[in-house]
Design brief:
Helices cover 42% and strands 17% of the residues. By secondary structure, the protein is of the alpha/beta class. It is globular.
């Protein structure tokens, strides 16, 4: 039986480079579609040396290129996107890449009759949650062009499901972190800020009382969820991917202080902050994907510091 081929947009980026090795371990061939603006050519070259990975150096904004490159592929993973902070700084580029790119990939997948499309959606589709844990059926209230494009992406998938029978799963990633992440990443900027100060023996500075929280999920567990979503029996649903645990900024500071091994106390900057908390309800991930997280925040953050300091 010939190997199935997975078409993966943004496959040379942070999450993609954690997904591709898992796909190879499972016996898939992989076609990476990436404009290499932020992609890692050296890592892609190493993966290509296996003989089961090829790179199409192109942009999701060009529908003809997407359609041509997807020919012969069995499954699709769509990761390519412009980040949250970039989407606010440049809404035009964000809409172009995230909205037009989404549509080009989904339309091509529907035309080619792929077995399953897995879309990297985001917990940001919920906006500021009214209750915890956050469930897939909660009200959606996306606040930035990035978040809006993720919600619209899910709606577009439903359109192609109805009109052409496209089978999909949208993974609503919570706060992804891990080795290989760019220091400018929106949700990890607080980690980088703390680590920078701790490395020079300075205490981390926390706004307010540090009660604002995030659901930090390790990129290895994110990659596992993508593979599980490609192979799940049930489709056509959004699925939260997080740990189900909200880690406050104050707790994060304590974890990082311990990991770096410095004797400092956090400093609190007394000012008003909009306290927001995030934690995923991951019941559906367990039921639909047979997935749950394997890396605890404290372990993942400690390992990340070891890599940073090494």
């Amino acid at each position: 039986m010939s190997k199935q081929t997975v078409f993966i947009t943004g496959g040379a980026g942070f999450i993609g480079l954690h997904v591709v090795p898992l796909l190879l371990d499972k016996g898939y061939r992989v076609r990476i579609f990436d404009n290499m603006f932020r992609g890692d050519r050296d890592q892609v070259a190493k993966l290509a040396a296996t003989g089961d990975v090829e790179l199409v150096d192109q942009d999701v904004r060009y529908g003809g290129a997407v359609h041509a490159a997807m020919k012969g592929c069995d499954l699709v993973v769509h990761l390519a996107a412009v980040s949250i902070n970039k989407s606010q700084a440049d809404p035009y580029e964000s809409i172009d890449i995230n909205m037009v790119g989404n549509h080009n990939v989904f339309a091509a997948a529907a035309d080619h009759g792929v077995k399953r499309l897995v879309f990297a959606s985001s917990a940001s589709v919920y906006g500021d949650p009214k209750k915890l844990p956050m469930h897939e059926d909660d009200r959606l209230d996306p606040l930035t062009p990035y978040c809006i494009s993720k919600r619209a992406g899910e709606d577009l998938l439903a359109f192609y499901q109805r009109s052409k029978g496209l089978n999909w799963i949208a993974l609503r990633f919570f706060n992804v972190y891990g080795p290989g992440q760019k220091p400018t990443a929106y949700y990890t900027s607080v980690i980088n800020h703390f680590v920078k100060r701790l490395k020079t023996g300075q205490p981390p500075i926390i706004d307010g009382r540090g009660e604002q929280s995030m659901d930090f999920i390790h990129v290895h567990d994110i990659a596992r969820s993508v593979v599980a979503a490609l192979e799940a029996e049930q489709g056509n649903v959004p699925v939260n991917i997080g740990t189900g645990i909200d880690t406050s900024v104050a707790t994060l500071a304590e974890i990082l202080i311990k990991a770096v091994g410095v004797d400092v106390e956090p400093q609190f900057n007394p000012r008003e902050v909009l306290v927001s908390r995030r934690a995923a309800d991951i019941t559906r991930a367990r039921e639909v994907l047979g997935w749950e997280p394997t890396i605890a925040v404290e372990d993942g953050m400690t390992d990340l510091i070891k890599v940073e300091v090494a």
